Amino acid sequence: MHLTRFRLNTVRSGARRLLSSPQAMHAAVMSSFPDVLPSDTDTPRVLWRVDRNAKAEVFLYMVSPAEPDLTHMVEQAGWPTQPKWQTYDYTPFLSRLTKGDTWAFRLTANPVHSIRRKADEPTKLTAHVTPRHQMGWLLQRQEAAGFRVMEKAPEQRRLPEGDEYQLVVHDRRGRTFDKSERESRGKKTVSLVTATFDGRLEVTDPKALRRTLTTGLGRAKAYGCGLMTLAPVG
Amino acid sequence: MSVLALLLAGPLQAWGASARFARRTTEHAPTKSGVIGLLAAAQGRERTADLADLAGLRFGVRVDQPGTRIRDYQTAKHFDTGKSMPVSERFYLADAVFVAAVEGDDTLIDDLHRAVQAPVYLPYLGRRSCPPARRVDIGVHRDQSLEQVLADQEWRAAGWYQRSRKRESTVPLTTFVDATPGDSRNDSVRDLPLSFDPLHRRYALRGVRTDTVDVPNPKARRSAPPDHNPTILLGGD
């Protein structure tokens, strides 16, 4: 597995086109692999995420089985005179994960649930929109995903309820974009609610966590959701 | 000893201490004479009544939202004779919020508390044309000093004002409290009411100590998300 980081030059129109449409970004990401074919869901796949750290510091992270070639992205949305992206070998780190480790993590996800409003209605996929429900969505999946979000010490909690975990939700956005850029095909609009989680976790099941890190968590993985990355606890 | 806290907020307020004749100025914060007048009116005392017990209360005020000073140019004609009255300038504080507090013995404070909840003459903020916009009474505090009550009260400024200072998680607020004999630095204002008799109003000098208290800002921006760089683990920067 490989982890790749690419910095976007946000003043270029190409970068703006990619950042405004997850559909376009997905196409650009997939174009960096000459050999990738559509595969079933339980094997490692290409995952990506955009981290907007500041207005002019926007990174694209990718986790992929093969090494990508981002030359076309550099030409459209990077700095062509200083072509730069870094690809790191991810496998040694993944195999080093052990139970009980603590890491800082970041995850951008599409938290949804299936509900019905009336008894005789078919269920419908519905987005979680409040930070509280979005946190609940992640906490519900943590066990199967191989980690546990760490709890806050009681004296650090700022609310009597709802502030039990070392977890923040930020960059919550609802986006709509067109699936097809061409008018002739008939525009299909996609709407998506995404949220970015930042927090600390403890590894409970290294194998499951490895699967989470390489196959993603939740839905809309083609649209920049589901990629979780780890960093040292700072 | 107990403390009665009052919330003085309204579209307009006017608190004159040195205002005379046709130029009616306002201080930047409520005056002791103004607040004592409000309490005496709530109790239903007449203008000529004795004020010694109220003037003996310790008084302090906190500036929660300073507001803007505005000037009004006012003309008037005499109702009977039609003669022009002197042109007067009136100054107001617009959109200001203050927390005022008086400290005294329990029975007097309880009596004042009841009076503020069911006032005989309606309270106004320094001038009859300035009604309060919110409930004036914000409670009695037992066994606490005046300074402590002013420091512990939550920030009462308007939501838009709190948001405008969202970069500050705690906000310093200015307080003006009655000086005690030991205070080295204080200002004196002719603001201690001796009589509100309309024929002969009398005020004595009052020492004022200026201080600040820090209160938390409920609208402060949440802390920024932490930096996250997964490449550190893999030998990157």
CATH topology of the largest domain in chain A: Alpha-Beta Plaits
The name of the CATH architecture of chain B is 2-Layer Sandwich
Shape of chain A: globular
- Strands of chain A, count: 11
| Main beta-sheet annotation of chain B | 9 strands, mixed
Task: Catalogue the unreliable spans of chain B.
Answer: none
What would you report as the Rg of chain B, rounded to the nearest angstrom?
22 Å
InterPro entries (chain A): CRISPR-assoc_prot_Cse3
Protein name (chain A): CRISPR system Cascade subunit CasE
Pfam families (chain A): CRISPR_assoc (PF08798)
InterPro entries (chain B): CRISPR-assoc_prot_Cas5, CRISPR-assoc_prot_Cas5_N, CRISPR-assoc_prot_CasD
Protein described:
The complex is a heterodimer of chains A (234) and B (237). The mean pLDDT of chain A is 89. The longest helix of chain A has 15 residues. In chain A, a hairpin with a 2-residue loop joins strand 2 and strand 3. Helix content of chain A is 24%, strand content 33%. By secondary structure, chain A is of the alpha+beta class. Chain A folds into two domains: 93 residues, Alpha-Beta Plaits (2-Layer Sandwich), CATH 3.30.70; 135 residues, Alpha-Beta Plaits, CATH 3.30.70. In chain A, strands 5, 8, 9, 10 and 11 form a five-stranded antiparallel beta sheet that branches. A four-stranded antiparallel beta sheet of chain A has the order 2-3-1-4. With 237 residues, chain B is an alpha+beta fold. Chain B has one domain: Alpha-Beta Plaits (2-Layer Sandwich), CATH 3.30.70. Chain B is built from five helices and nine strands. In chain B, strand 8 and strand 9 form a beta hairpin. In chain B, helix 1 crosses helix 3. The longest helix of chain B has 12 residues. Chains A and B meet through strand 4, strand 9 and strand 11 of A and loops of B.
What's the short story on this structure?
By secondary structure, chain A is an alpha+beta fold.
